[in-house]
Amino acid sequence: MANQDDQFKKVIAHAKEYGYIFQSSEIYDGLSAVYDYGQNGAELKKNIREYWWKAMVQLHDNIVGIDAAIFMHPTTWKASGHVDAFNDPLIDNKDSKKRYRADVLVEDYVAKIEAKIDKEVAKAEKRFGDSFDKIQFLATNPRVLGYQEQCDTILKRLGKSLEKEDLADVKALIEELGIADPETGSKNWTDVKQFNLMFGTKLGATADTAMDLYLRPETAQGIFVNFLNVQKTGRMKIPFGIAQTGKAFRNEIVARQFIFRQREFEQMEMQFFVRPGEQKEWYEKWKETRIKWHKSLGLGEDLYRFHDHEKLAHYADMAADIEFKFPFGFKELEGIHSRTDFDLGNHEKFSNKKLQYFDPELNKSYVPYVIETSIGLDRMFLAVLSTALVEEALENGSTRTVLKIPAVLAPTKAAVLPLVKKDGLPEVAQKIVDDLKWDYNVTYDEKDAVGRRYRRQDAVGTPFCITVDHQTLEDNTVTIRHRDTMEQRRVAIDDLSSMIKKEVDIKTWLLKSL
Ligand code: GAP
After folding, report:
1. Distance, CA of 34 to chain centre
2. For ligand 1, is residue 335 a contact (CB within 6 Å)?
């Protein structure tokens, strides 16, 4: 645990030191759970967004993208169920006066039991060496089976109580498990209460004419209310999808863990409209498609797992999370939800407008069912950043800090470095920058010894360093150094662009997801 905390602290410090993430309004001591993205963070975020958009919109003939407004008519949120049901179960500790999400307290308790399972596995792995069969061990070891049963029982009961809105039982569960305030150890809890997460605001100049609005808590509703506009103008045929990326806002009460849980964040969502009755098939298909997208980035196959929901959101008939192993454990990165005809059906009721599709093959109209894929851009950013940050021991006994961000996502693809600041080398280096910058984000750096400049680029995650030296003046070649292997090769300046393209091209990476 201490190691995980240390690693997470390092990620946060590194993100600030290298211009990735700053606290919002830091000069006024910041605003809790709100963050700004710096010069490198903005590039990484843009690259993640493009990686998603390319895969989800441009590579699918039957998916289109939109950009709906953040403000929506307030009835939207009545129809979507957010006014009545977008609540978190909260509990206060009477001694510390700290507020927690009751379900998260229980889930964290379960995570501790799961950590015990991991420990047993690690111990057995050490004992049995190469002959260790993890699957068999998990299925037969009595201690592991006991822990697993404990986890399942607790989560099942939590899911049931939340579904039935039985908040007294959630409190009873917390007390039975002896869960204490994680910060103070006190077990003196209040009752569990529901708390709505939407931010309210007003539209209009005067108090009496102003209209109460909400900042959207998800981008999905902008898609639902435009379903017919897009279907008709795009002549879309079911099955088809509508995607968008954009800001969402939630008044998160327990907003810890850096950019993992923020009050203002960005979502990348896609609603896929299907025939009623075909949702199961499409749900499975989108689960598979999305996990392949994640794995194409090569962060590590074992960093992902599916978690099927016991407690379904008010709109879903099937739902699963893709969980990622963050420095603080496995947590939700993306949700895949089968939303039935809940949203379109309710918008029909509340707006009195038909939101149906005439299916020429079936010769009838119906309200389509929807499979949704919904990923938080900021969470994806944290997944990439926290996995990328490594400290490596070098052969000469020193260490280096490297951000091994997948090259396709790296904010800057190459740094061009003149070996010395004289003899015409800076001019040649600048010319290379001027040439490459049409294709990629590149940077020029002439300050300090070249070894220090390499370290700086390693720490910021630049996949390539191109060094211009005196030989360059004679034969138009440079050295190109690879961030991860630190290997250097001599190449012709004319070949640089195609060499870098091979490694950073979105096509090369996304082909792995197909
Ligand atoms: N339209 C469905 C929906 O919004 P959700 O599970 O509430 O579903 C989807 O959110 C994704 O949005 C999550 O998987 C997570 O990645 C991201 N997300 C949700 N709340 C967040 C927050 N407070 N801060 C950062 N990301 C968040």
Report:
1. 16
2. yes
